[in-house]
Amino acid sequence: MSPDSATIRRVPTGPARRGPIGAEPARKVAGQPGTDKGAVSHEGSEARIDARGVYYKTLNEQIREEMLNGAQTVILENVNGQRYIGGGLSGEDVRVIINGVPGNDLATFMTGPTLIVNENAQDGVANTMNRGLVVINGDAGDVLGYGMRGGRLYVRGDVGYRVGIHMKAYEDQRPAMVIGGKARDFFGEYMAGGELVLLGLGSDGKDIVGSYLGTGMHGGVIYVRGEVAEHQLGKEVSIAPLSAAEQSRMEELVRDFVGWMGLDAGEILERPFIKIFPYTHRPYGKLYAY
Amino acid sequence: MAEVTFTRPEFRVRIDKELCQKCGRCAHQCGWGVHKMDEETGYPVPDSSKCGACHRCVTFCPAQAILVEKNPLAYKHSDSFSPDLRKAVWRQAETGGVLLAGMGNDKPYLRIFDHLLLDACQVTNPSIDPLREPMELRTFLGRKPDKVEVEYVPDGNGSKPKLKTEMDRLLQIETPIVFGGMSYGSVSLNVHRSLAMAAKELGTLMNTGEGGLHADLQPYQDNIVVQCASGRFGVHADYLNAGCAVEIKIGQGAKPGIGGHLPGEKINEEVSVTRMIPQGTDALSPAPHHDIYSIEDLRQLIYALKEATGYKPVSVKIAAVHNVAAIASGVVRAGADIVYLDGFRGGTGAAPTVIRDHVGIPIELAISVVDQRLRDEGIRNRASVIAAGGIRSSADVAKAIALGADACAIGSALLVALGCHLCQKCHTGSCSWGICTQKPELTRRLDPEWGAERIVNLVTAWSHELAEILGALGVNAVESLRGSHERLRSLGLDQQTQEILGVKPAGIGH
Domain range spanning residue A248? Predict the structure, then answer.
């Protein structure tokens, strides 16, 4: 551009910011911080990685590498907020055991493996997960199972907002989630398929779920072990008792859940469950003028 | 009061009975059921109220006996309350529903491209003849390094230079024209097949839109960008890895801030398999991604996708809205390799008319402010800018690139090439041309081989025209036009618009 055109462009576009512009993710350049691998030890088909201070990208590369080399169980020690563990991971008989608190988007896009977290987990667990099992032996954060279309997610403790959002089922792919504790608002929002089970363990069954339960829901089912008041419901859902088939399916999920958690199913199933379901698959069918 | 509609037909369909051969083709061809054959007389009896002037019947009438004309019915004149607005009120009073429309904003807003003129060389700086001299249209999309380092490695007696900087993966396209996202579900599978075949032959990219990737398109995956939008339809690890890049769709020019509802009627068996949802349920794409409420969250999804795909380029598609420059800056800082800007004239399979016609800003302004903002902040190299939403010709492509785009994406123009006549009835799912429908008797009208050939022809022709424009400008690579506002002049734009565009008025020299 000629000098003239520099003067003609007078529209303020915000202060010019040059120089350092925020931390960048570590690139694949040897010797730079963030590329140091965690110490690995092997025992049979088990690989143990010390994740302390290891950058997420490097850690995930290491997990994939160990699995490619034949490890069936990868144990991560000292995990502290590393993201995307199990992200895009596939394989049927492989498992990752996580000691420490993994970061957001655990098991995102995962197809097949089993992930066991021995402490709490953060947001976005099982985001768009396809198949596999995630077991969390603590609490977990918001937006769990977003767009999840298969596999199971078991959380021992409480979960945050918008859990199970837009879960969807297709033919034999039916995602399921069992939450041992309580859930906050928008549980099962936009849900299009699959099953959510909320147990509210350790409480009297009151106020175990927030408001806007099942808002926008147009498929799937939510089972709640306790009471839900009318005002807590999204406007697309109703409450009903479980049919015999639903009761047995729900019990099947609870039994599987307690098997992983070391709890007693009998006591849990003593209290009655209710079913939350959408009364139309076309919530917005009448919204438009054609 | 008996059911009566006040909305009179927009068009009048007339059959010339002297020419009509009573063959019934018109009745067969019309997806909306305009023509019904009269059993007694044998002539078709048109119901004009269903006609969208798509010309399907006109095109296939062997006797050229069909005339579609504007309904001359007079309305009492009002510059303020146009007949269209009155009709909208009547339809809503009748139905209580939100009005829907297909294709892009058709309102008479200022068309900035039509007020921009390109430069050419005369006498002192020679123009180039692209027919005889090399002309580079090849474009690389993606993140370019901040600096390039070269080292010399020993080679026999001397040494040879070697690139030391590790490059991010770039997408190579042979012409700066890619295809915009149009989902399988909104358009037919044969449209997707046509696009995929054409993209492969042209060496450019098609985009799945948010509807998954049909198994038939796997062979074209090197030329396919797969989209991950808020509904996450058909998104799984294999799908993400099937494409050469992943696009996160945040917004669409035709409906910024709005989600999508693919009605249950359009979810047939094949669409259901590809989207991985049951047949007959509404496919609801929420307005936001529920895992993205901030630039940091966007970064999280970008890197989740990169982790799942072995670090393929990630594009982020946003609608051009008032604050687009700051948003684009955030998108680039979040780690996007491509920022896809969709202007307010972009097309859609269905959008609330009020949103389509009144929300967003023109792409020309968006390109200019985004390019400038990224330059001001020293991060322009970190992402390519794709401009879309109202690119109608090779001239628009050249002007968009001069304003600062790396490449343009086209959608409506591709559908027009396949027979679309912009009747804007996409949302009804009965497209007579077999484009925006899932009815098998209609979709089979589009032969993918024929469709691919027409798209290849169109893009090849535009590419030739681009080469001619570059030659006239005296440059031999599209790279030399990129961001070259000096090669544009405005005609009839106000001063502030000129300033935003960084363009001088026509008549002013250097």
Answer: 139-290
Chain B residues with beta carbon closer than 8 angstroms to that of A128 = 228, 232, 235-236
Q: Which amino acid is at B498?
A: Q
Cβ atoms of B370 and B324 within 8 Å: the answer is yes
Q: How far is A52 from chain B (nearest CA, A)?
A: 20
Residues from chain A that touch B96, judged by Cβ atoms under 8 A, are 289
pLDDT digits (tens, 9 = 90+) for A221-258: 999 999 999 999 999 999 999 999 999 999 999 999 99
Q: Which residue has the tokens 């027009």?
A: B416
Provide the residue range defining the domain that includes B29.
Answer: 11-97
Q: DSSP 3-state helix, strand, coil percentages of chain A (rounded to 5)?
A: 15, 25, 60
B314 and B216: one domain?
yes
Residue A22 pLDDT greater than 60, yes or no: no
In a domain? residue B479:
yes
Does residue B510 lie in a domain region? Answer: no
Residues 244-263 of B with CB under 8 A from A: 261, 263
Q: Measure in Å the smallest separation between the Cα of B226 and chain A Cα atoms.
A: 14
What are residue B103's phi and psi, to 5 degrees? 60, -160
Question: Is A152 a domain residue?
Answer: yes
pLDDT tens digits for range A74-90: 999 999 999 999 999 99
* Closest-CA residue of chain B to A89: B308
Q: Give pLDDT tens digits for A203-219.
A: 888 899 999 999 999 99
Facing residue for B264 by CB, picked from A84, A281, A287: A281
Could you give the CA distance from residue A269 to residue A247 in angstroms, rounded to a whole number?
10
List, in sequence order, every residue forming a beta bridge with B100; answer none if it has no partner. B352
CATH assignment at residue B401: 3.20.20.70
Given a contact cutoff of 8 angstroms between Cβ atoms, the answer to whether B226 and B208 are in contact is: yes
| Best of B290, B495, B503 to mutate (most A CBs within 10 Å, chain A) | B290
CATH number (domain holding residue A244): 2.160.20.60
Cβ contacts from A onto B, under 8 A: 185
Q: Is residue B111 part of a domain?
A: no
For chain B, the domain total comes to 2
